[in-house]
Fold:
Amino acid sequence: MATSPAAKITKAKGPAATFWDRARQQFHATADLINLDESCREVLGNCRRVVQVSLPIKRDNGVIHTFTGFRAQHSNHRGPYKGGIRYHPDVTREEVMALSMLMTWKCAVVNVPFGGGKGGVICDPHNMSLGELERLTRRYAKELIPIIGPETDIPAPDVNTNAQVMAWIHDTYAMEVGRSALGVVTGKPVSLGGSPGREDATGRGCFYICLKALPLFKMKVAGSKLVVQGFGNVGYPMAKLWQEAGGKVLAVSSDKGGVYNSKGLDVEAAAAHYRQIGNLLAFKGGDQMTNAELLALKCDVLCPAALEGTITAENAGNVKARVIIEAANGPTTPEADLILEANGIFIIPDILANAGGVTVSYFEWVQGLTNFFWKRAEVYSKLQEIMVAAFDDVYDMGRKLKVPMRQGAVALAVSRVADAFKMRGLWP
Ligand code: NAD
Structure:
């Protein structure tokens, strides 16, 4: 039998060249694990669509500068494409393709009816005025109108984009199509159809998973020690909920370094300091430490909630946590993963751990489509239900296949998407 292109990639040796190559390698390794048939490999191993757009914008000084933007749509077999838009100088076509594939898996893990998409614009928003950002966003939204919409592709905030950017996209879409359509984006301001509970959804989702997972190790949150790397949208709510539940938050950090207190930090005081100063330097409620020292602290749970690639082959051997909950996307490099696994550390992988964000985005989308808005408590209880069910499903899949949670999560996701593809069949 001839070797398919997919099988060739599976057998490729050495480190993958790009993020997209790595995402495909992970997919094909999973396909091997679950004996996925060739037709599913061929379809799910590729992005359905990648759009590149030129965005000429008048800068405040009157000069026209042309930016480049992308939107990748990996799979819509289970529902509309879903995924964030990032503004960053390092955005590439292959990066958004990889991220769109990972969104397909993340949505499938939590069983929300979305596929995967991701967008990005190559720009440095820190060197742009608000007016320039608005013009860039509106031009980008206009270029994407043929391929986005409440039933086709629903963007959301990602790195360097926020509720304001989503409001501009919503408005541009509404002006162009001639009607309001709250479902076109999620992560909107609450005053414009955003969902209560979206701001802390990702950290809260991590917390709900820990509530469920710790008893497997005869532990519980109350009395357990948590270390959090990164103290932003995700790290702060996780730390806050942990402390409210009677757990001890030993240390938190920002990019400038961390702060440690063996008796447990006062999370609210640290958050007030962080909000005011933008980092934790000179916070009086604990001792200063580097991020490297923080990762090496003895604790029950370590929560990397900063950027990708912070746990590496160089520092993984120092980690002394029993459990790692990956709040950030891709915080553990593949080499580090092997070291942590060999040291018996239980890793709750990113596509499960941080899926609380997309889950509440799904709730926001449903509320926008029905024009009926839920109370915060309802959002939280439905979020908990979904996160716990997803944890159980991933755990069971991992045990069934005798693989760690990371492979179990991807295997569960790929199986769900493959089932949808097989039921729909190939068109035409
Ligand atoms: P954020 O910008 O609000 O916070 C990031 C935090 O990490 C900041 O405190 C920053 O100072 C710190 N940080 C940056 N580099 C660091 C480093 N090298 N070492 C230690 N700390 C560092 O971002 P966020 O929205 O909290 O996102 C954090 C991670 O979670 C990202 O990987 C993001 O992709 C992922 N994520 C976020 C959401 C969400 O809803 N916000 C959803 C899913 C995944």
Q: What stands out?
A: The two ends are 26 Å apart (CA to CA). The longest strand covers residues 64-75. Residues 47-185 form a domain with the Rossmann fold fold (CATH 3.40.50.10860). DSSP finds 15 helices and twelve strands in the chain.
